[in-house]
Amino acid sequence: MIRVAGKPYPWRAGMTVADLLQECEDARDCPVVRVDDHYVSRPNFASTPIPDGAEVFFIPMIAGG
């Protein structure tokens, strides 16, 4: 089990950041994801595993002026 934005989410062996983003429709456009204390950018989503028990947060792009 992992936690995504503070809510429990099922974990499976071999799960990557890219896998999680495909499953969570509202987070597909996030350019950065935090896995525990590590920040992962889009080029590394497919190669970054999510360990069991991890805390995951989606970091949206914010624009302003």
Summarize the structure.
With 65 residues, the chain is mainly beta. It is built from one helix and five strands.
Fold and architecture overview:
With about 60 residues, this protein is mostly beta strands. It is built from one helix and five strands.
* N-to-C order of helices and strands: EEHEEE
Q: Kindly state the percentage of residues in helix.
A: 10-25%
Question: What kind of sheet is the major sheet?
Answer: 5 strands, mixed
Radius of gyration: 11 Å
In the predicted model, the low-confidence regions spanning at least 5 consecutive residues are none
The helix/strand class is mainly beta
Helical segment tally?
A: 1
Query: Roughly how many Å apart are the termini?
Result: 39 Å
Number of strands: 5
Name the strands of the widest sheet in spatial order: 2-1-5-3-4
The mean pLDDT is: 92
Strand content: 25-35%
Global geometry: globular
Q: Key terms for this structure?
A:
mainly beta; 5-stranded mixed beta sheet; globular
Question: Layout of helices and strands, plus pairs?
Answer:
Blueprint: E1 2-4, E2 7-9, H1 17-23, E3 32-35, E4 38-41, E5 55-59
Parallel strand pairs: 1-5
Antiparallel strand pairs: 1-2, 3-4, 3-5
